[in-house]
Amino acid sequence: MFSPFADHDSISDSRIASGIQTPRRQKHQFRSYLLNGKYERPWVDDSVPKRALKRSNWIIYAFIIVALGLSALINWRATIKISKHDYCLILDDSFSSIDKDIWNQEVQLSGFGTGEFDWATTDSKNAFTDSEGLHINPTLTTETTAITHDQILDNFVLNITAAGGDGSCTEPTTSPAYNSACSMRSNATTKTTLPPVRSARLNTKGKKGITYGRIEVTAKLPSGDWLWPAIWMMPESSLYGPWPRSGEIDIMESKGNAPSPGGQGRDTFLSTLHWGPSAKADGFWRTTDARTVKRTDFSKGFHTFGIEWSRDYMFTYVDSPLQQVLYVDFRKAANMWSRGAFERRLENNSVLTNPWRETDSRNAPFDQKFFLILNVAVGSRNGWFTDGVNNKPWVDGSDSAVADFYAAQDKWYPTWGKNNDRGMTVKNVKMWQEGKCK
Q1: Using 50, 70 and 90 to split pLDDT, how confident is the model at 164?
Q2: CA distance 379 to 374
Q3: Are strands 127-130 and 183-185 parallel, antiparallel or unpaired?
């Protein structure tokens, strides 16, 4: 049987020996199939393909010109929104220390109206400065106090009015929330749980504020489940009444959770204006916008969160005024009352009252002096963290919300960033008042 692996030379030799003549294989001669000589090329003289080619080129050129024109228009429209106002720099703080001539540190327990789970302190572990700037770091209550795990849950009276000095409660004694803000008793039966974490909240109230101008805060946001960093503003005096009648300006609010769909993580932040005749009739949803980054998040490096505010408009931005997030043109409505269409709303079967009826400012309540707030909250019961999303361990409306959050510590605490990454680091704060310096 013929083997394909046999030696071909030996096979030929054996055939020759047996008298069988095998002709040698001729080498293949390369033959070109290209046309030689002249050949007809009728398309060369045909004007139709040439016209089609020119037409195609002109269409491409037209698209390029239109694209460049649209790009220039977009940039021009963004540029004209940037004001040509005069500004006077009234604050430039890079935090060599926490300057008490600029910053107040708040101390209280009641959650500041949002139901957050942290206890705001002046503890140097929660707010301190170093070469990077200001750090606002949350800590476990059991880490930084003598309060035990069992005392957080039951039978312990915490009265921060008795601490004295800088540690005393900063809630005004005339406030209806004074008692709950300054003292509480844990009770396992009623699910009344002491704040299981401590953090810090700094503001410039009575020291630095603006009516129209600019603010820029360069900061790196925290990483960790249920952390809530915020850079925002509140009115110096509630001229138009309690929140939200006198307004609130949120330059930046984010979440420390890992990036996830729907803006539920630290790759997204929101800018919002709160305003309305009552807490139930808050027009914030008309003046809210978000910015999301891809393949990174706001805890990976420093960003500048800014706001520019005038009588005619207000806009927030990130890193540059050209990168606007929320833009509100106060000239597009007669006033904020008509912008919110509140005249068509009823509350408890009663017609709402316009809190800004005594002023002719079309931007009221955003025509008053506002101060700046920097803080990192933990948790909340106001809907900021959506029930059922990201395995949220508590339900906002539950009486046991704080206890349920605390019970899940082994799940959320390991997600908090190491060392200062669990907090918000603020490198610099600048504030400008509109107008020339006097």
Answers
A1: very low
A2: 16
A3: unpaired
How many C-beta atoms lie closer than 10 Å to residue 393's C-beta? 17
Task: Decide: residue 77, CB within 10 A, 0-12 exposed, 13-18 middle, 19+ buried.
Answer: exposed
Strand, helix or coil at 64? helix
CA distance 111 to 122: 16
What are the beta bridge partners of residue 183?
159
Q: pTM of this prediction?
A: 0.82
Residue 353 token pair: 């009252």
The answer to whether 342 touches 117, Cβ cutoff 8 Å, is: no
Q: Confidence class of residue 28 from pLDDT cuts 50, 70 and 90?
A: low
Residue 222, preceding peptide bond in cis (omega within 30° of 0): no
pLDDT, mean of residues 49-69: 83
Q: Give me the active site residues, please.
A: 248, 253
Contacts 24+ apart (CB under 8 A), 294-301: 294/267, 296/267, 297/221, 297/223, 297/259, 297/265, 297/266, 297/267, 298/220, 298/221, 298/254, 298/266, 298/267, 298/269, 299/220, 299/221, 299/222, 299/223, 299/256, 299/266, 299/417, 299/421, 300/220, 301/220
Pairing verdict, β 197-199 and 118-120: parallel
* DSSP-derived 3-state class of residue 378: strand
**pLDDT tens by residue, 95-139:** 999 999 999 999 999 899 999 999 999 999 999 999 999 999 999
- Sole residue written with tokens 């880490």: 143
Name the nearest CA neighbour of 269 among 306, 233, 244, 243.
Answer: 306
What CATH number should be reported for the domain whose range is 86-434? Answer: 2.60.120.200
Residue 249 has pLDDT above 60, yes or no: yes
Contact between 259 and 251 (Cβ < 8 Å): no
